[in-house]
Amino acid sequence: MELVHFMVNFFREGGFFLYPLAAIWVVGVAITIERTIYLTNETTQNRRIWSQVVPLINSGNFKQVMAITSKSKSSIATVLNYGIARLASARRRDDVEKAMDESLLEIIPRTEKRTHYLSALANIGMLTGLLGTVIGLIAAFASIAQANPAEKASLLAASISVAMNNTASGLFVAITLLLAHMFLEAKTTKMIDSLEIASVKFMNSVVERRQDVEGGSDDLAAASHARGRAAHGMA
After folding, report:
1. What is the 3-state secondary structure (H, E, C) of the chain?
2. Which of 13, 56, 126, 191 is 20 to 30 A off residue 221, Cα-Cα?
3. 163 with 118: CB under 8 angstroms?
4. Membrane-spanning residues where (predicted)?
5. What rounded mean pLDDT belongs to the chain?
6. Which pLDDT tens digit goes with each residue over 1-27?
7. Residue 155: how many CB atoms within 10 A of its CB?
8. What pLDDT band is residue 28 in, cutting at 50, 70 and 90?
């Protein structure tokens, strides 16, 4: 109850600019919660899909991989879909890598969506608090200019209190939203890095499997050629 009473008095004595500051903070918190939930769910789905497809990729069962990833809208599924689709028509590693990089260009804007608003809201909140402070100080000096000498001290103290409330509110909004922005940026970067690592592992697995298959084919061809020469010599 004391906290509620303090907040009510704080807003009552802080002036008009505390209300837009509160609105800015609420919008920032809503964006932070929504982005945190999205990134957490996306990271969980990526890990689940990746754990399912790793054994299939290592065994070269790309049809089964495609069957799993085509049913998911996760980021890792999008990356793998691009890569597997390109494998059907491309023989060079660079072509497949370009296709997977193209998928990241589609995913990154989706993961960074609305996050950049937090830094803008933090700056707007800071400037709004400073504007409230300046207007409060202007009102303070205007009030004491026409007041009785005995009342000047109390009026000045009350007006400065209003100005400092705006400064404190602006700093609170800016600090919390900047911290939220840093947290989401770190979480987004971590997820994108994991997608890049997964794409590299996918490509390495594909290249190793192709080398094994091509090497095996060369060995079979050499053995067949040797058997033909032996048969000709016996004839």
Report:
1. CHHHHHHHHHHHHHCCCHHHHHHHHHHHHHHHHHHHHHHHHHHHHHHHHHHHHHHHHHHCCHHHHHHHHCCCCCHHHHHHHHHHHHHCCCCCHHHHHHHHHHHHHHHHHHHCCCCHHHHHHHHHHHHHHHHHHHHHHHHHHHHHHCCCHHHHHHHHHHHHHHHHHHHHHHHHHHHHHHHHHHHHHHHHHHHHHHHHHHHHHHHHHHHHHHHHHHHHHHHHHHHHHHHHHHHHHHC
2. 56
3. no
4. 16-38, 120-144, 156-184
5. 79
6. 665 655 666 666 667 788 899 999 999
7. 17
8. very high
CB-based burial label for 208 (10 Å; 0-12, 13-18, 19+): exposed
Residue-wise pLDDT tens digits, 161-183: 777 888 888 999 999 999 999 99
